[in-house]
Specification:
tricarboxylic acid cycle, oxidoreductase, Malate dehydrogenase, alpha/beta, three-stranded antiparallel beta sheet, 328 residues, 43% helix, EC 1.1.1.37, NAD, binds NADPH dihydro-nicotinamide-adenine-dinucleotide phosphate
């Protein structure tokens, strides 16, 4: 029998955590034959709610779930962790400046990075979901110098999935017929969903659409503002779809991309496509044997170039801001 994989989830008592934990425990994160041990990290005020969620997890009698530990100590939560999903973050509240937000998140992601550095398993894979996800990932990475830099990633898979769904709807095909879509840049309103290399039922998506105005005026803003539209409709932010995307991200990272397809992940740039080295930016990636690679050689047209550059500029500014705070 396989040894259980240790999966740490921060902000476990939050909305996304609630939608995430049951799917991890039922085998959707890693595979239907992989047992898991869960470690739930919460702030002290969240511990009681996390215990309630753990009671419900017990009550599911998931055959793959081999244990649940709840703690407010990152050193305990990340001890031996193989996969870490960093969901808990300081939300932007009304009137809060970006610098204050980054500083508050520095107070969360720096100690978590340090704890990962000191205690996580050698094969640790980290996904940051809590916003601003790309820059929070950068803060955690900087605090974990002994962990290979590429193990710190940020989630743009929800944007990727949203874009696939919009494109499928527009072109009247099943989502499974959409391939090679790319999200570039920051998980923020500046993100750029790129269809120029995507395929719709085997044909080039941009040619099938043949409508740059739809791309610029409908598609891109719909994908980028989808989170706000969901808050407006549901009265609460997207949680199940964000959890689903986190599951997809890790599942792909562990199990690989399909032949001929790729996915989008926020990963440390190696300088590809003019993205300054070290920024955690979204790229098209293929994954094999648990390692991702940036898809190389894509031609970037002017339409795409301007939008990638704008999002990357925002990431560079966020990096400068956290550097000024002494977090890098
Ligand atoms: P959620 O579970 O709804 O969201 C958690 C984080 O995910 C937020 O930063 C949120 O960013 C982000 N996020 C990323 N993508 C999305 C998306 N598509 N839709 C919605 N959110 C997204 O927040 P809750 O407030 O319900 O729960 C947070 C929990 O984290 C609380 O239980 C709190 O106690 C805990 N916490 C734990 C910490 C720790 O473990 N050390 C530290 C801080 C908090 P955004 O707000 O920008 O939408």
């Amino acid at each position: 029998t396989r040894t259980p994989v240790n999966v740490t989830v921060t902000g476990a008592a939050g909305q996304i955590g609630y939608a995430l934990l049951f799917r991890i425990a039922s085998g959707h994160l890693l595979g239907a034959d992989v047992p898991v041990k869960l470690r739930l990290l919460e702030i002290p005020q969240g511990l009681k709610a996390a215990e309630g969620t753990a009671m419900e997890l017990d009550d599911c009698a998931f055959p793959l779930l081999r244990g649940i530990e709840i703690t407010d100590d990152p050193n305990v939560a990340f001890d031996g962790a193989n996969v870490a999903l960093l969901v808990g973050a300081r939300p932007r509240t009304k009137g809060m400046e970006r610098g204050d937000l980054l500083e508050a998140n520095g107070g969360i992601f720096k100690p978590q990075g340090q704890a990962i550095n000191a205690h996580a398993a050698d094969d640790i894979k980290v996904l940051v979901v809590g916003n601003p996800a790309n820059t929070n990932a950068l803060i955690a990475q900087a605090a974990a110098p002994d962990v290979p830099a590429e193990r710190f990633t940020a989630m743009t898979r929800l944007d990727h999935n949203r874009a696939i769904s919009q494109l499928a709807k527009k072109t009247g095909v099943a989502v499974s017929e959409i391939r090679r879509l790319t999200i570039w840049g920051n998980h923020s309103a500046t993100q750029y969903p790129d269809v120029f290399h995507a395929e719709v039922a085997g044909k080039n998506a941009a040619e099938v659409l043949n409508d740059e105005a739809w791309l610029a005026d409908e598609f891109i803003p719909t994908v980028a503002k989808r989170g706000a539209a969901i808050i407006e409709a549901r009265g609460a932010s997207s949680a199940a779809s964000a959890a689903n995307a986190a599951i997809d991200h890790v599942h792909t990272w562990v199990n690989g991309t399909a032949d001929g397809d790729w996915t989008s992940m926020g990963i440390p740039s190696d300088g590809s496509y003019g993205v300054p080295e070290g920024l955690i930016s979204s790229f098209p990636v293929t994954v094999k044997n648990g390692a991702y690679e940036i898809v190389q050689g894509l031609e970037i047209n002017d339409f795409s170039r301007a939008r990638i550059d704008a999002s990357v500029k925002e990431l560079a500014e966020e990096r400068e801001a956290v550097r000024a705070l002494g977090l890098l």
